[in-house]
Structures are given as C-alpha cells and as structure tokens.
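dumping this here before i forget
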Amino acid sequence: MMRKTITLLGLAALLSGFAAQAQPAVTQLYFDTRASFHQEVADGQYKSQFTGDHFNLNVRGTLTDKLDFRIRQRLNKKVFDERNMFNATDFLYLRWQATPRWAFTVGKNAVLIGGYEFDAVPIDVYYYSNFCNNLYQGFAFGVNAEYALAEEQTLGFQVCNSPLSLGFQNLYAFNFAWTGRFAPWWSTLWSVNFVQDEFHRTVNYIALGNRLVFGDLAIDVEWMNRAGAGQRNFFSDYTVISKIIWTVGKWNLCAKGGYESNDIANVDAAGRALDLAVAPGTRNVYAGCGVEFFPLPNRDRLRLHAVYFKSSSIGVDNFDVGITWRIDVIKR
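structure:
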C-alpha cells in the first residue's frame, strides 16, 4: 500500500511537473470580432442589414525560448474549399529565432507584399483597394527567412504558394521585403515580388509603403507597380494610396483614398489579362472617411466606428456603423 501511494505521489509530481512546463506554452489566446450595421445606396435604391464582419480565434505561444507559434482562424469564413482546405486559416506557423539576427518561419503566413494597406490586420480595415480585394489569397503556406540588419531594419525573403493561385496549384511567389526606418518619423514597408499566376506567367510587383508619424498624426503614402511579361509600358499598371489617422484623445479621425490604373493594352497574345488582380482598362478611384472611438483605456478591448466609403468601379455609397471587441482567454 505504501509503495502504491509513493508511486501515485511520484506520478502526480511528474504530471504536475509536465503541466508546469507546458503551462507557459500558450501566452495568448483570445477572440476578436467586428459587427456592423451596413447601409448602401446604389442606383437610388437604399439597402441595409446587420452584418458580422469578423470572428477570429487567435493563439500565440512558445515551445522553447527560441521557438514560437501563431494561429489565427477565421470562424466566420468558409473553412473547407476543395482547392484549399485551410481557406479560413490566416496564420499557422512555427518561428525559430536561430540567432539574434536570423529567424526562420515555416507554415502559413501573410504573403510578403509591401504596403501598409495590405499588411494591416483585416479586422482593422473597413475597405480595400481592388488589388487587395481580388488576390485569391493574402495568406499562404511557405517558408520565410528574416535577417535583422540593425534595430528596426529587417530584410525578409519568402517562398510561398502564389497569392494568385486558388489554393495548392504548383504556383509560387518569391518575395523580398525590407521593413525599416529612415528617420524616427518615417517607417517603410517595401517589397519586390515575383508571382506566378494560373497561366504560369510571372508578374512582378514593386510595392513601396511609407508611414510618416508626427505626434498624434499618422500618414501613409504608398505606391505599387505591377508588370507582366509582354507589358508595353512599365508604369502602365499601378496603385497609389494615402491614409491619414489623427488621434484626439479617445478618438481617431480617419481618411483613406487611392487610385488604381491599368492600361487596356496589358493583355497577352491570347487576350488574357497580364494582371489578374486589377483588370486591364481599370481606372478606379476609391475613398472614404470615418471616426473611431475607444471608450476603454486599453484600445484593443473595444472600438466603435462610423465609416463612409465608395469606389468608382462599383459605384455604391457605403456607410457602416459598428463595434469591434476582444475577449482575452489567456494573456501572459
């Protein structure tokens, strides 16, 4: 009986030891969601509806002091697609901090395309450019390597499934990115990308995202050029974007606008568009403005918003009033 008691106590101690070691593995587990009352006017007709825009499960944690992981699952997005069984998964990766300068990531991650609109957390974006809207996938399985040149200066290289593929189609993207800073008030998110499309052609992106911060005023200025093989003029397919956020106490006053242009002649010999994200002949102006209110001291917990936006390519006046909130289950 004594031996059995000692064995049970030893087993309990061993299990508690494993539990103590495993307990800090998950450092964050939380849900975030956004809901809106959406109103629109198209051709003089008014429509409205209550919508659930986002509902996400987020998990972050560590396996060792050099291995960390991240998961973000969109719970309101179609989970399974015959071409992409991870359709609703944004992040599912393991990151290894090999040295103070080198880090390597494997799994599903954001495609390394420059610009702050593309890089923003989707739940924080109320409307996108046609380019961002029309990419088949902004998150893809692949491998990343990062090298820290200096503090706040990082070079990244990524090979991943193409954002112009519908899932897993033997199509890849080769992405080079620089996240840096020219001055305390000027941050950059630049990239050069070589992306294969469904016709096994390669499209080149040059994306230059710039963020200027002056106290409570933040200004984004972005430019992207897209060039496919056979394109007549290098600067004939591009997007320019500007965004302003002015923080006044618990309020954000926001405005964003952009212009997208693609020459109608940018097609191949078979008449197929060289750019599958922004169609040839596009001349799109999109813009909007709004306010955000953060009633709690922690801005991540609760946000109210009212936003108006319109795109000339669709011609619909949109007005959203909504709420975003976050529930922390585990936070260490």
